[in-house]
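Q: Here's a chain of 116 amino acids. Please give me its 3D structure as tokens.
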Amino acid sequence: MNSSNHPSPTRTERTNPTVPFAYPFPDNPLASALAVSDELSAALALHGIILPSLGPELASCTTSTVHRPLLELGRVNLSTAHRLTTVLTDAADARKAAAARPYTGEDNRTDSGTNR
């Protein structure tokens, strides 16, 4: 199943834990699990991390009248676990540093090649 035709989460949905998660395909728990699995796999790949066993946990997607789909993350070697730990720690440190900076009301991004 190609899950690329579901809407990607917005930046707010990705970074704000108070925004409730909505299944990409509310009436199809397996499709939702596949879509979220694809998103997680792509996000991890940006950091050079591959979880070979990542995918839907089929029983949770198909056997219950109350669907609570789960993902299998699988086993990883120590090198992959270390890389994953480094990425998560670096992201947490960056988030803490950003929260500690005083808000100046200015956008810190640079417009390369643009004159104002």
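Q: Can you summarize the key feature?
A: The mean pLDDT is 82.
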